[in-house]
Amino acid sequence: xxxxxxxxxxxxxxxxxxxxxxxxxxxxxxxxxxxxxxxxxxxxxxxxxxxxxxxxxxxxxxxxxxxxxxxxxxxxxxxxxxxxxxxxxxxxxxxxxxxxxxxxxxxxxxxxxxxxxxxxxx
Length: 122
Known about the structure:
By secondary structure, the protein is mainly α. The protein contains three helices and no strands.
């Protein structure tokens, strides 16, 4: 008959073998996941490279100048379109000259219902 110690060590060796077997397949699965992540990373890097190339192509100064000329119909500023600084009106000095609609914003004392419990009373 076998001794208790021998049975213990045999059981321990069998459990270690089963544990290593399971660990091997977990590591293989993780390696597959890593390979998939690396493949997706390369695909994304290629996509970013293509997008940068497209951005550079679309932002060529010659193209933007042509589009601006054709679509915006802008013209250079002429001398008669300028003003002296003294011709610009200044701000009103008193609060009476400010329209009432801009004095206080509407609903300035209201908070959204989500934050209503944090409202400070004046």
